[in-house]
Predict the structure.
Amino acid sequence: MQTRRQFAGAAVAACVAQAAFAKASQPRTRIAFPVPPHACDCHTHVFGDPKRFPWWSGRTYTPESASPQEMLRMHRALGIGRVVIVTPSVYGTDNSATLDAMERRGATARGVAVIGPGTPENSLDVMNQRGIRGIRLNLAMAGLNDPAVARERLRAAAQRVHRLGWHVQILTTPRVIQCLAATVRGSPVSVVFDHFGGAQAPSGVNQPGFPELVELVRSGAAYVKISAAYRASAQTPGFADVQPLARALIEANPDRILWGTDWPHPDTASGRKPAEIAPLLPVDDGRMLNLVAEWAPHPAIRTRILVDNPARLYGFL
């Protein structure tokens, strides 16, 4: 039996080994429920070697590196078998790092790309063949809070990807969602909102725009990711005030709920200059996954969120 000193020494050695392996966070909390086979993390990023994958000159932050190998280690610790990798804003419309990471994961990976008006149609076809299943509109990072601009961006994006059967993923705020509701209902493609639709937990379920998001989910007009609770709440470590938001969305329509880690947790609002390295946030993804069991206590509902919904939206066979 280990003495307390031996246990402490082993823990220090493990931490040193982990630090030597990576800067990106790894789970520290044991998973408290049976994770179903083929569970999917629907929101991750990779940040590769900038010599191979250069940063976009118009980025608003510069993250530390986070490799596909580190991501795989994290998912193995969580018991997560599938992943969706999303091109982050620091790469602009260059999806090379995302596609490289998807190739490394093989058939268990899908991707969400960022495109621009100059992205040729044949590039979309190639990305489709390689497992891209949607495009992301980052309205929040771009500061696009004008509803008219947001509606036009969504219409143009949907028209662009309709023939491929892709969806449009949107990072925005509840107030913009409130103005987008009619456009989302009429969209010819599926629409996915990131991170609780940008809702902030202290403002509760009646904050402007959140009831509209709930209704879009209830009607099946939109999916929403119950991801990155730490971006919605400051109540660490359990983020208790996020639970009413999560349960309102799940109860509205569990068939339109997705879950994701937001690994490797970039600090997009560090206050640093864009070219200055912003350390990744030290988020415990084991604790984040355990929140799913609190928000959705019934195992069958969790399976729909973690397995069935991603399989349908992202085309996992």
